[in-house]
Specification:
heterodimer, A: about 375 residues, alpha/beta, abc type-2 transporter like fold, 2 domains, four-stranded mixed beta sheet, about 65% helix, B: about 375 residues, 14 helices, about 10% strand
Chain lengths: ~375, ~375
């Protein structure tokens, strides 16, 4: 490896980037824009569930229950109706998520010390919202009847303490994961076309007689994109801390170091795709399919990896974003030091070495 | 007509010349829908916990038994002190720690309240809220049991809720996500294909050759679009079959309606792809720009994150996003067996967006030629 040759390739690639300001701007602005948009937009907290109510009882007790429901931040009463069919239509049209039916004998049964039943129908198509809504309604009913019974204190009580994200804000866990996903995608997108482009336009021929070696070409091509990636990281972490007020509890240098490992792996992966595909169309499809969707779905960014069936968990082990998502959450939210994240760091290192090694092996200066 | 046909033939030959494209277009969607069908799962089970029993009595063992025998939790072992639990949470080997405090049993029988401390890793707030919910459920049932046992009278729970979930009685998260994966994969594959279409000819210089042929503008566009549209229909069919046969997602509605929605949606997607193609001069630019569309389109479509939770400004983006409507229609047809009259509003908005994008393409194309 000759430093001068690497410098020459880096300079050429940098010129290439600068000459195409649109791609440059997109490479730098997309990440920030994404973080902004999604930091504000993505929220899995469930509240204001639209419900419709059928009150056949029309008693003080039923009205008391309804007003209790109305007062809760989780539910929003949208419609009152006399029969179920009207509300059912609205449920199919997704204008309602739940329907509460209070039967005729509700209050008389309670007054006679007989068990009374409420009926709650929910739109199960969004299973996450549905199961949370069901637990809300059950908790609410339990509370309401306890008040009714004037029951003494419970036998057992729980004192929950939530660590690292005390208010359980979904933003705090989405934003750090989002940084990882954005970095992964940007890295592979940036480099996946670089060598395929040279194959397609025939400029690789120009490099063949030159004294630059394959390793020097790969290194020289990675460096400018690495700089872009690091700038992206700074902007993203800054946005997360200053704008979204996500706490930063760990060591910034540690984050920088692990991000560099991750970036080299990601950029190397783009180069590998480029070398294998030799066509920009194929490379771009491959990049999107192999980085975008896995980084999004198999990294633990939103969907818990421990929940997946074993074969899928095994597949997720080759998704480098998985380790980076864990790492970045551990550093930012948990404030973990080197000792806690050594496994993830070693995986990232192994991944980087294998990927760049493969890219080097597959890349031959020939047509 | 003949010319369009020739153009379509040329496009197909070009596409198939690279057999890898065949794999990308047909095999990968199947593979992805299977992987994601399994991966996307918000049903939380088998949460790893650790228990610290400071009381060591019959009652404390009793409640621990309630936790560990539930299908939600797996006890990874008893902890000896709090710092061991804290350490494991920090490392991420357990998600929650359960600490039964001193005098737990004594408090229960002396009309005081027995206390259980719960330590939860809140990093993943969704999982954390499920953990809390499950624990509360278990403790609630324990309270009811103790109540009837200690007071020796059966406390009747005066009010109970009978719940039932429509369209997805067992609340499988698969049912929700897989019809969404269908909409998503079609978008990802087709946007990129169509965005690359014209740029590739520009980069290779073959666009000039096409310009001098008698091929009319609209014939060129149709010739380019029809092959992609076919690919789109084939992908929709394949993924719907995987969803129904492999994942047993009910397909309540009509296939014809799904195709109809796909046709309208493809108009929008392919138009946007072509717009990207006409404003880009290199394939790199086209790819970045497609990505610029796909990422927000996916996240702001209600695929995972409810639109109702978004701030107004972003809601507006979500409502001009054609994927939002296609996703709703896909879910409606799959799960609710919705017919046209129920989905008419979504169809209307989707059509409006498609028509607008098609008009922009026609307008842009005229401009380009007049140059």
């Amino acid at each position: 490896m000759n430093l001068r040759n690497i410098k020459a390739i880096t300079k050429k690639e940098t010129l290439h980037i600068i000459r195409d300001p649109r791609s440059l701007i997109m490479g730098l602005i997309i990440p920030v824009l994404m973080l902004f948009l999604f930091g504000y937009a993505l929220d899995m907290d469930v509240n204001n569930i639209p419900v419709g109510i059928i009150d056949h009882d029309k008693s003080d007790l039923s009205r008391d229950f309804i007003s209790r429901l109305q007062g809760s931040e989780y539910f929003e009463i949208k419609f009152f109706a006399e029969n179920f069919e009207i509300l059912e239509q609205l449920l199919i049209k997704s204008q309602l998520t739940g329907i509460l039916t209070i039967p005729e004998n509700f209050s008389s049964k309670i007054n006679n010390n007989q068990p009374a039943k409420l009926q709650f129908v929910i739109d199960g198509s969004d299973s996450n919202t549905a199961s949370i809504a069901l637990s809300y309604i059950e908790a609410l009913t339990f509370e309401w009847q306890n008040k009714l019974l004037n029951q003494a204190k419970p036998f057992v009580e729980i004192i929950p303490r939530v660590w690292f994200n005390e208010e359980m804000k979904s933003r705090n866990y989405i934003v750090p994961g989002l940084i990882a996903v954005i970095m992964m995608i940007i890295a592979a997108l940036l480099t996946s076309l670089t060598i395929a482009r040279e194959y397609e336009t025939g400029t690789l021929e120009g490099l063949i007689p030159s004294p630059v070696t394959e390793s020097e070409i790969i290194t020289g091509k990675i460096i400018p994109y690495f700089v872009m990636g690091i700038i992206d990281l700074f902007i993203c972490v800054g946005t997360s801390y200053f704008i979204f007020n996500v706490p930063f509890r760990g060591n910034f240098l540690l984050l920088l170091f692990s991000s560099s490992l991750f970036l080299f792996g990601g950029l190397g992966f783009g180069i590998l795709l480029s070398v294998i595909a030799k066509s920009q169309l194929v490379a771009s499809q491959l990049a999107l399919v192999t980085t975008f969707l896995p980084a999004f779905l198999l990294s633990g960014f939103i969907f818990d990896i421990y929940n997946m069936p074993l074969p899928v968990q095994t597949i997720s082990r080759v998704v480098s974003a998985r380790y980076f998502v864990t790492l970045i959450k551990a550093i930012i939210l948990k404030g973990n030091g080197l000792g806690f994240i050594i496994t993830e760091l070693s995986f990232l290192t192994i991944y980087m070495v294998i990927i760049i090694g493969l890219a080097r092996l597959k890349f031959k200066k020939e047509i | 007509m003949q010319r369009i046909f020739a153009m379509i033939k040329k496009e197909f030959i070009q596409l198939w010349r690279d057999p890898r494209m065949l794999v990308i277009i047909f095999f990968i969607p199947v593979f992805q829908s299977i992987i994601f069908g399994y991966a996307i799962n918000t049903d939380i089970r088998d949460i790893k916990i650790s228990v610290l029993d400071l009381d060591k009595t019959v009652e404390s063992q009793n409640i621990i038994q309630k936790f560990t025998s539930s299908r939600y939790f797996i006890n990874t072992g008893y902890a000896e002190n709090i710092s061991q639990i804290e350490n494991n949470i920090q490392k991420g080997t357990i998600r929650a720690g359960i600490i039964i405090e001193n005098n737990f049993e004594k408090n229960i029988y002396s009309n005081n309240t027995g206390k259980i401390q719960i330590l939860i890793d809140g990093t993943d707030s969704n999982t954390a809220s499920y953990i809390l919910k499950y624990i509360q459920e278990i403790v609630k049932n324990f309270n009811i049991d103790k109540g009837s046992e200690i007071k020796a009278t059966k406390i009747t729970m005066p009010v109970s809720v009978e719940t039932s979930a429509f369209f997805n009685p067992n609340l499988y998260s698969n049912y929700f996500f897989i019809p969404g994966v269908l909409a998503m994969i079609v978008t990802v594959v087709l946007i990129l294909l169509s965005a690359m279409a014209i740029v590739r000819e520009k980069e290779a210089g073959t666009i000039e050759q096409i310009m001098v042929t008698p091929l009319k503008n609209y014939e060129f566009i149709l010739g380019k679009t029809i092959p992609f549209a076919l690919i789109g229909f084939i992908d929709v069919t394949i993924i719907a079959l995987v969803a129904n046969l492999h994942f047993k997602i009910p397909f309540e509605g009509s296939f014809f309606l799904l195709y109809f929605a796909t046709a309208i949606y493809l108009l929008a997607v392919l138009s946007i792809g072509f717009l990207i193609s006409t404003v880009s001069s290199t394939q790199q630019q086209a790819m970045m720009t497609s990505f610029f569309f796909v990422f927000p389109a996916m996240l702001l479509s209600g695929f995972v994150f409810p639109i109702a939770n978004m701030p107004l400004l972003i809601k507006i983006i979500a409502y001009v996003n054609p994927l939002t409507y296609f996703m709703r229609i896909s879910r409606g047809i799959f799960l609710k067996g919705a017919d046209f009259s129920i989905l008419s509003q979504d169809f209307l908005y989707l059509s409006i967006i498609s028509v607008i994008t098609v008009f922009i393409v026609i307008f842009k194309n005229r401009q380009r030629i007049s140059h």
